[in-house]
Each structure stands twice: as C-alpha cells, then as structure tokens.
Design a protein that fits this description.
The chain has 519 residues and is mainly β. The protein folds into two domains: 2-309, 5 Propeller (Tachylectin-2, Chain A), CATH 2.115.10; 329-515, Jelly Rolls (Sandwich), CATH 2.60.120.200. 2% of the residues lie in helices and 50% in strands. The two termini are 23 Å apart.
Length: 519
C-alpha cells in the first residue's frame, strides 16, 4: 500500500482533469495569465507526479496580449481517444475577441508538441469531451442560461463534434442546469460512458466556500438526465468555517488499473476558515459505486488528509518539496516550475549556461496588465523562505528590480531595489487595488548584487533585505478571498524602467525555495 497526503498538488493547481492510458495517468490544471500554460503531469500510481511538459508552450499558439489577472486559460479537460491525447480549454478575455473562447488541441505524446488550437464555435467556459462506443465524439461545456430564472443560473450543453470537419455539428442539447433549485454556476461538466450509461459529473455553487459536486445519469448522451436524489453528492460547505479545507468541487473521476475509482478535485486550505493564500489546490478522493451511482469519500464524506492506494511504494507527501528533495533549494533556469506573465519565459529572459536567468528590463511595472519582466514560481507551502540573489551590475540608473509576492497587478507585495547615481534605494511596498503603500525604505551603498528574501509563515509574509526585515504583510490581504479572482500566490523576480525606455537587465544569480515545514 502507498499512502498519499492531500493536497495531491499543493499550490495553485486548480480545476484538475485526469485520464488514464494503460498504466499511466495524466493530469492538467488551469494556469490563467501565466505561461507556459496547462502543465501536463504524469504518474504511474496517482501518488508521485512529474511535470512532463506544458500544452501551451509556443508563442504563436495563443494571443495573451491584454489578458487580465485571473483571465487566460480556464479549466482544461484531458482525454485520450485510443490514439491521441485531447485537451479542450477556454481562453478568457483576450484583447482580440476573435482569438478567444473554447478550443481543442491534440498530441500523440502528452509531453508535446501539441497542435495549434482548433476553435470551437460555442460560447461559455469549462469545455469537456467524451468518446462514445460508436465512435461519435461529444463536446460539452457550460454557459450562462439563455433564459435564466435567477441570477448566475447556468446551463450545461452537449453537441456532437466532427473530427473530419473539425467543427461542432448537429443539434445542441441543454442537459443540466444544476441539481438544486436556485443553484448557481452549474459548471465543470464531465461526461463518462460507464456500464452502458452516460454519467454527468458537474460542479455547482461557485468555486469558493459553497462549491459542490453533483451527478446525473442517462441512457442517451443527450438526455434526459436523472439527478441523484442525494445531490449535491459531495461538498464541504455544510461543515461550516471551522474546518481546514473548504471549497471542494470541480471533480473528474478515473478508474485505476485494479478497477478501483478515484476523483481529483480542487479545494482550498484555509487555516482560518476563509483565507487561502496558496489558492485552489488539487486533492485526491476515493470513489465507490453503489446502486449505479458514484459515492465520493465513502464512509466519511470529506476529503481525507491521506489515502492508501493499493500499489507498492514509499509513503510521501505527494507533489511536495522535501528538504532532501531535488525540488528544494535553488531553482535552475531549466526547472519546469518557472512561469512568466502573458509571454513565455524565454521571450523575456535568457537562460544562462550556469542555470541562471538574465532578465531584461521592461517598461511595464508589476501594476500593468501587460508583458511584465517577471519570472516566478507558485507558493506551495504555508511556511517557506524564498530568496533571490540579484546581480544588478547591468541595471541602468533609475531602473528597478526586486522580489515580489504576486496575486495580481492590483494586489502584491514587493521588495523594490532601484539603482541611483550614488547608491541603491530599497523599498518595501504593498499594493492594494489602486493604492501602493510604502511600508519601509532604506538607502544602501552601491553594490553589484543584493540578497532579498520573503519569509512566509502562515498568513505573515516578511520582506527581508539582507538580514533586516523591512515589513510584514498580512497574507489575508493578498489572497483571492480578499482581492477577488481565482489565483494563489506566486513568488518571483521582476525588473522595470517605470515606463521609460529600458536599457538594462538583471541576473538572477540564485533563486531559492526552502520550505521550513511541510504544511
């Protein structure tokens, strides 16, 4: 037996989708405005996961210009048709509306390369795909109800897809509007053909505290669908805010090699019942079948802290970085955890032979919804030290670099280091909405490099220059529960010329991620 600890994937890995091909599992999650987009993770046991590539990893695949924070790539689904992998996803809020919406990409190898997008002529979000036993392909997704009976009512549609025509064909069928009268945001649909029936698993309640999972079934893919009388069949909302894990929902199920079943879904670790700086994370849940219906977490009805899966292996905290693990410590430039904003990392920085990055200064600042000079990684632990040793010898006078804890362009906390004629100015700032608050400032003598650290301890984020803590930021003011949006926090390095013509660059000499606990 192997014991896996939840969350399966800590940090901002929301909206998970999973499929199995033989003995191999593949999982994808949302990435919003960050690139490369849609990480493809591989596992042989549902416990140990490795990122093998990203489905959106070419500059010409999608246009991210002007994508707002918490826009971008929403809720992918991954499936296999017997020959190729399929991912269907939504690009939300591009500047050019003709290059947004629902799309399909395919690949023979999940590590890539993935095809250019095939755009689907349908509105809404959360697309999914199912393959019938007769070879027919069924796309489905969610959108705001055409004739809503209440605010935020949505509807789930299904329509046939022609691989030959690369288009939706035939009639559209609305099959679900939620299980509960008055339900909002019925979304994240997945259809499955199991034992001669079609099953629909969908979320409702919104991807926050009231999130839930519902299930329905039908003899025909187009319905009518019979809802489970126990709907919603899974949620944490009835537990109140005195629990550590909230917002469970957006489930996708998979059958294991031995015939057992599991679900992946998102949830949030909120130590105070409300705030979750690490964002929406991926959790694993056992599933049983009783009287023709899936039962989530049978016998206890909540996401377990740990699960035993019937395969040999070592007990691990799955997906986490351990002190003796290669994923703790310095993050080299070839590490697949690096992401950037609206452009690929290699478009804004040059990877050096020694594993460092040379980050070119850009005119845009962290407060701009543009192509900012930013390289970062997800926060995956509540208690962690993140350190950047920045070589500023190529930074021009008046330009600024630093280390940031980022939620969005409107909400972040940063250590800013500006090179002046006679030295360095270090500022600790906290942006909340339209207001940037100066927490502390220090003048330092001219130096080629500076060591900056963010010490995260639960909800406290200490901004440290050298050995001096300049400010402590309340993480509750940075998380999505306070700021809006769908993201967890990122740590990263930035460089800006404050709107002027950029001239310099900064070498990220070392970027360290050191968890101080396994929370």
């Amino acid at each position: 037996m192997t014991t896996v600890s939840n969350p399966l994937l800590p940090g901002c890995y929301p909206d998970p989708s999973v499929c199995r091909v033989g003995d191999d599992y593949y999982l994808v999650t949302s990435t919003f405005e960050y690139l490369p987009g849609l990480p493809v993770l591989h596992s042989r046991d549902l416990v140990h996961w490795e990122t093998v590539g990203h489905a959106v990893d070419r500059a010409d695949m999608l246009d991210f210009a002007g994508i707002r924070s918490s826009g971008g790539l929403y809720a992918p689904t991954i499936r296999h048709d017997g020959e190729r992998f399929w991912i269907v996803c939504t690009l939300v809020d591009p500047t050019d509306a003709t290059r947004g919406g629902n799309f399909l990409i395919t690949a023979a190898d999940p590590a890539g390369p993935w095809s250019d997008p095939i755009w689907l002529d349908v509105d809404g979000i959360d697309p999914s795909v199912a393959f019938g036993e007769d070879g027919r392909i069924w796309m489905h997704g969610t959108r705001l109800a055409r004739e809503p009976q209440w605010h935020h009512q949505t509807e789930i549609w299904v329509r046939e897809y022609s691989g030959t025509e690369q288009a939706l064909v035939g009639a559209e069928h609305v099959i679900w509007r939620g299980a509960v009268n008055g339900a909002v945001w019925a979304e994240a649909p997945h259809l499955y053909r199991i034992d001669g029936r079609w099953y629909l698993i969908a979320a409702e309640g919104g991807t926050e505290f009231h999130h839930a999972v519902s299930v329905a079934r039908a003899d025909d893919v187009t319905g009518p669908y019979e809802g489970n009388r126990a709907n919603p069949v899974f949620s944490h909302r009835h537990l109140g805010r005195g629990v550590r894990v909230i917002g469970a929902g957006h489930a996708d199920i998979v059958e294991a090699q031995d015939g057992s079943w599991y679900a992946v879904m998102l949830a949030m670790r909120a130590e105070d019942g409300s705030h979750y700086p690490l964002g929406r994370e991926t959790f694993l849940c056992p599933v049983a079948w009783e009287e023709g219906w899936p039962v989530f977490a049978p016998g206890y009805g909540v996401l377990p802290e740990s699960i035993e899966v019937p395969w040999a292996g070592d007990d691990v905290a799955a997906g986490t970085w351990q002190p003796d693990d290669r994923r703790s410590g310095s993050v080299a430039s070839d590490d697949l955890r690096w992401t950037s904003l609206r452009e690929l990392p290699e478009e804004i920085a040059v990877a050096q032979s020694d594993g460092t990055w040379q980050l070119a200064v850009r005119a845009e600042s962290l407060a701009d919804a543009g192509t900012v000079a930013f390289l970062g990684v997800r926060q995956q632990h509540a208690d962690v030290d993140v350190t950047g040793v920045l070589d500023m010898s190529a930074l021009a006078e008046g330009e600024t670099t630093g280390l940031v804890v980022r939620q969005s362009e409107r909400d972040h906390a940063a250590l800013q280091v500006t090179r002046n004629a006679d030295g360095l100015l270090v500022r600790a700032v906290h942006r909340r909405g339209d207001q940037e608050n100066l927490e502390a400032a220090r003048d330092l003598p001219m130096a080629e490099s500076v060591r900056l650290t963010v010490r995260a301890r639960g909800y406290a984020y200490e901004l440290v220059c050298g050995e001096e803590c300049l400010a402590t930021i309340n993480g509750r003011e940075l998380d999505a529960a306070s700021t809006g949006g769908f993201l967890g926090l990122w740590f990263g390095v930035f460089a800006t010329s404050h709107g002027r013509q950029p001239r310099g660059s900064v070498r990220i000499h070392d970027f360290g991620y050191e968890p101080t606990s396994m929370l």
